[in-house]
Structures are given as structure tokens and as C-alpha cells.
Design a protein that fits this description.
By secondary structure, the chain is an alpha/beta fold. The protein has 10 helices and 14 strands. Helices cover about 30% and strands about 30% of the residues. The chain has a 6-stranded mixed beta sheet, sandwiched between helices. It has a 4-stranded antiparallel beta sheet with strand order 2-1-4-5, covered by helices on one side. Helix 6 (about 170-185) links the parallel strand 7 and strand 8.
Length: about 325
């Protein structure tokens, strides 16, 4: 594997229109080697268009694409480069009269790079090679697509909605496989609209909406920006006056009974904010305190909203 490049993927001002309809516009993105990168957005945001341009399936109207430090001029001449990539499309169709084994044999024959992990991933994803494609469920067809993308040990994995149709157990096994790829210095670029999935396995995430990039950050950095939620139960009701404190973003009553009064309090995520809350509440008897883990879903939902569209990353 060539180690002389810093970014496995570089896109600069990538633009693709379908007639008058915008697919993506001026989309720029750098993905470092050796990371799991989530590409997040609602349906129709431009995720699949970006991937298809990246792989030469679609010709962009304008823009710059570089893979493994090499600018792509004409995909037809990049045979050696294609060998280093594993790709799972979002709509994966198979020849119905083939068996799973015949399908995987066929994909193997198309590559010079040997399918060194074929048997391992067939077993891990619980795939029966003797079955006919016509008998497969959506989830089992997805497994075939994953094995063909993974089995030749690519340096770059590009996966469009990789867990679609998979049951929770197989999803967890796939996450383990992808983390192992990352540990060995591989790069994974996957699109998803599953917020929990991205938060669970990605190192970085880019958010697209209506063809524009609206955010690109490391997951660890995003977690530090998410508002801290505090769930607190007090013996007597809290005064609405505490919501005027500058460090409190929002204040909401969950329930109120003779046994206690529970509230949700959202705080700006800065140092010493919790201590300030307890200073404000020092005259109240506190029965219970819960500090949930940061949830990035609320952050992402902001960018899916109308307001979020204004924050386009240039």
C-alpha cells in the first residue's frame, strides 16, 4: 500500500447536475487515510451522486477528484487504482439464476487482486454460498454485496448504505470488520442516514443537504459541541426563574408528583457548567441526577432543518 499520500479521497468543488436539477454543487471534502468516515444526509441529499462521481460511474460537470494522492483524469485508464477499491452500491442487483458462489466467483474473476478474505467474511456474515440468488432475502443479498466489496482486502472501502436490510447481529459483526480494516490502515467511506450508526463507528462525518456540504467534523469534536443534558429530580418544584441563567439553554418539566419533581435541563457544554447548576439549586433537595451520554442526533437534526441549510461549508 502506498503511504506517500495524506488523504485517501480529495474532492474539490465537485458539481453534478441532472439537466436543470442539482445533484451536488461545489462539494469539497478531504478524507484522511486510515479513518472511518461517515457521509450523512437525508434521502436525496446528494450522497449517492457524490459516490458515483467519485467512482467514475457519473461524469461530474466540474470539479477535481483525487484518490490515494492521484488526480483522476480518466477512470477508464485507472485499472490498477480500481483494484485498491471495494464498492457496495446502494442498489445492489444480482443475476437471479446464479448461486451465491457463482456470483462471488464472478466478482473474483474480474479482479487481479486475490480474494484473500472471502471464506472468512462468508462465515462472519453467515452467508450460504450454495443458495440461489432468487431465494435470497434483501438482507442476504446485502451480505453478498458486502463480501464482494471486502473479500479482496481493498485499501479503500466505499459503501453506500452498507447496513440496509441487515439484522442487528450482522450489523454488529460488520462494524467489527470495518474497525479491523481501520486498524490495518485502510480507509472506509460510507453513506448513511442512520444517525446512531454514524455516531457508533465513524471517526469523522460530513453532512450534506440538497447537494451542498453543511458540516464536516470529527465525531470527537462534535461531541464537545452538543449541549449537555441533565435530568434532575427534586423534592419540591423548581422555580422557572432558573431558566434565565445564562448557562442554561432550556428547562423543561417532565413530571410532577407528591414523590418528586423531574426536569430536563440543557446546558452549554463548557467547563464548570454543572457546578453552576448545583449552585443555583443549593436551596432545593435533590433526589436524583442523571447525565445521559451526548447524543449527536440533535446536532444532525439541526442541519437537516431549514436553518441548517444556511451553514454551507465552502
Amino acid at each position: 500500500m502506498d503511504l506517500e499520500y495524506d488523504f485517501a479521497i480529495e474532492l474539490k468543488n465537485l458539481t453534478k447536475y441532472y439537466g436543470q436539477h442539482r445533484g451536488i454543487e461545489n462539494l469539497s471534502l478531504q478524507i484522511r487515510k486510515g479513518v472511518i468516515h461517515g457521509f450523512l444526509g437525508p434521502n436525496g441529499a446528494g450522497k449517492t451522486t457524490t459516490i458515483r462521481c467519485l467512482l467514475g460511474i457519473l461524469n461530474p460537470n466540474s470539479g477535481y477528484i483525487s484518490l490515494f494522492g492521484k488526480k483522476i483524469e480518466r477512470w477508464a485508464t485507472e485499472i490498477a487504482l480500481k483494484e485498491k477499491i471495494g464498492y457496495l452500491p446502494g442498489e445492489f442487483e444480482l443475476y437471479r439464476h446464479f448461486t451465491v458462489k457463482q456470483i462471488l466467483d464472478y466478482f473474483d474473476s474480474l479482479r487481479k487482486r486475490p480474494a484473500v478474505f472471502r471464506d472468512e467474511f462468508v462465515e462472519k456474515l453467515d452467508l450460504d454460498e450454495s443458495r440461489s440468488v432468487s431465494q435470497l432475502s434483501k438482507g442476504n443479498k446485502q451480505k453478498v454485496g458486502l463480501v464482494q466489496a471486502l473479500m479482496h482486502d481493498p485499501d479503500l472501502l466505499i459503501l453506500d448504505e452498507p447496513t440496509s436490510g441487515l439484522d442487528p447481529l450482522i450489523q454488529q459483526r460488520l462494524y467489527t470488520i470495518l474497525r479491523d480494516f481501520r486498524t490495518r490502515g485502510k480507509t472506509i467511506f460510507f453513506s448513511s442516514h442512520n444517525l446512531a450508526e454514524v455516531q457508533k463507528i465513524a471517526d469523522e462525518v460530513a453532512i450534506v443537504k440538497e447537494g451542498f456540504m453543511v458540516s464536516h467534523d470529527r465525531i470527537s469534536d462534535l461531541s464537545s459541541r452538543v449541549q449537555q443534558k441533565l435530568i434532575i429530580t427534586t423534592k419540591t418544584p423548581l422555580s422557572d426563574a432558573i431558566s434565565t441563567s445564562s448557562f442554561i439553554v432550556n428547562f423543561e418539566k417532565i413530571y410532577s408528583t407528591n414523590g418528586g419533581h423531574r426536569y430536563q435541563i440543557w446546558l452549554h457544554r463548557h467547563n464548570h457548567q454543572l457546578s453552576k447548576v448545583f449552585e443555583v439549586l443549593e436551596d432545593f433537595v435533590i433526589l436524583d441526577v442523571v447525565l445521559p451520554e451526548p447524543n449527536l442526533e440533535e446536532y444532525f437534526i439541526h442541519y437537516y432543518s431549514e436553518e441548517g441549510t444556511k451553514h454551507v461549508v465552502q
